[in-house]
Amino acid sequence: MKRTRALLLCAGLLGVSAPAAPRLVPLPTPPATADLPELQPEPSRPQPLAPLVPLDTVPAPAPVVTPSPPPPATYRPSDPLAPRQWNLTAIRMPGAWAQLAGSGRGAPVTVAVLDTGYVSTPELAGRLVSGHDFVSDAARAGDGDGRDRDASGVGEAAYHAEVIGNLIGAAHDGRGMAGINPRARVVQVRVAGQDGLVDPQDLADGMRWAAGLPVAGAPVNPSPARVLNLSLYADFIPLTGCDARIQAAVDAVTARGALVVAGAANDGADAAGYSPAGCRGVLTVTSVSEAGQRPGYANWGRSVALAAPGGERGRGILASSVSGPGGERTPDGTSLAAPHASGVASLLFGLRPTLTPAQVAGLLTRTATPFPGGRCDPDSRKICGAGLLNAEAAVRAALASSPSPSPTPGGTLRPGGVR
Fold it and tell me: Where is the composition biased (Pro residues) (predicted)?
């Protein structure tokens, strides 16, 4: 079976007239009448006095309450690339940010990017962590060894993880691009070799580690994530359904309280055959263009939960990149769709830390914007989930939601899947 690079779920890498006045009618002169008798005033009567109230019981005047000004309807980052980031407008990020400005933006949340590895970027200064390298095959790793503590990206595809992380969390600092959650912490976990391929066991172990679960031979992750972004699919296995190893890892990290978000992949096929896109409990995201329609490359099907901007050739997703021409890139693909959902999910977890993964996934799908004409594709078989990700509506729903259940003992949350 001909295979494409798994990790790069990017289809393109580089680049009333006035009313009439009323008519006045004179009143008729009343007829003359006999003189009326002169009215005499009624004798005055004493009026009862109001009871005297002691001074010390007079209520004090009510304090004057000055209402707080309402939050702005929208918020626009000052970053120079932001006006060209059509994807943020598509998912209604300005309206979401405006609501967060009045609530302190919520708590910072950690998002793990399981991808090509760590690339230092000024967009995430002080919030980016080099996690762990889980590529076990030294020949494919390209760094001279197998698994180790250095998660640095290697090879021409190394920028892939950088772009994903920037989409999720780039600072709003007047430089470069604007990220979805500028307070997010990003942990880069390397699971792809320099060839862009992903071994299923490497992926399963990387997922467990990212969520703070123990993995033999690796130190405990000091920064466990609430959201795992997987803009990839596993190689070296048939595309006939979710791999058992990856399903077990999804179940484990979900029980730990982490949401797994995956790109649907770029083969224009049913996503059900792919791992993790076809796995139970995963929030699978496919791509739509600026017009809200599925590009030909984007996978589809019942395993897809919703869609987000992934762009198309010539109109991709703009992002900062230290290695890109002029410091930017405009790739397209479901790789770029997934981090939109991951970024918004991190905002919801920050607002409501006790939400379960299933509750966050439910908020995202329940508040999605319907596709133009009610479908993402003229072919009724090629469905794209609940609709287009709507950050503004999701944040509003989270802010209006009642308190969530408390965490269960041990710091984990009650498990629950998307499907």
Answer: 60-74
